[in-house]
Write a structure and sequence with these properties.
By secondary structure, the chain is mainly β. The chain has two helices and eleven strands; from the N terminus they run αββββββαβββββ. β7 and β8 form a beta hairpin.
Amino acid sequence: MRKSLVALAAASLLTGAVHAAPATYAIDPTHTFVTFEIGHFGASVNRGRFDKKEGSVQLDKAAKSGKVEITFDATSVNTGTAAFNNHLQSADLFDAAKYPTIKFVADKFVFNGDKVSEVAGNLTLLGKTQPVTLKANQFNCYDSPMLKREVCGGDFEATIDRTAFGMNYGVDWGFPKAVRLVVQVEAVKQ
C-alpha cells in the first residue's frame, strides 16, 4: 500500500511538472519599443516610434506556446519632429483622436529549439484587424541581476501593407504601401 502511495505521489509530481502553468511576464516599457520605417520618395527612410506602451506575455517554454497582448498609444508617436508627429496623429494617417490605441494580440508562438522564432497574431490599427507575423531576429531569457527576476525578450520584425488597414495617405504620390515594423521587447516575469 505504501509503495502504491509513493508511486501515485511521484506520478502526480511528474504530471504536474509536464502540465506546469505558463509564466506571466509584464512588458518592460523601458526596453520595449515599436518603430516603423517607410520610404520617402526613394530618397530616405522616415522612422518613428511609440513612446507609450503596455502589455503582457504568457510563455510556456515546456509546451512551446504563448500569448501576447501589447497596446501602443497612437498619440505618443515620436519621430523627433513635432510637426511630423502632429501630421502622423492626424486623420491623414493614424487618426489618433478617433483611434487612440494600436493593439497586437497573438497566441501562436513558433519555437526553434528553446528560442521563440516567430509570433503570429492580429494587429488592430485604425479600427481594422489584420494578421501579422513577427519574425524573431533574436530571442533570449535571462536572470536580471538588477531586477532579481527572469526577463525574456527579443527583436522582431514584420512588413505590413498599411493600405490593408485603410492608411492610404500619399499612395497616389508614390509613397510605398509597405511599412517595416521593428519590435524590441523585454518582459519581466511576475
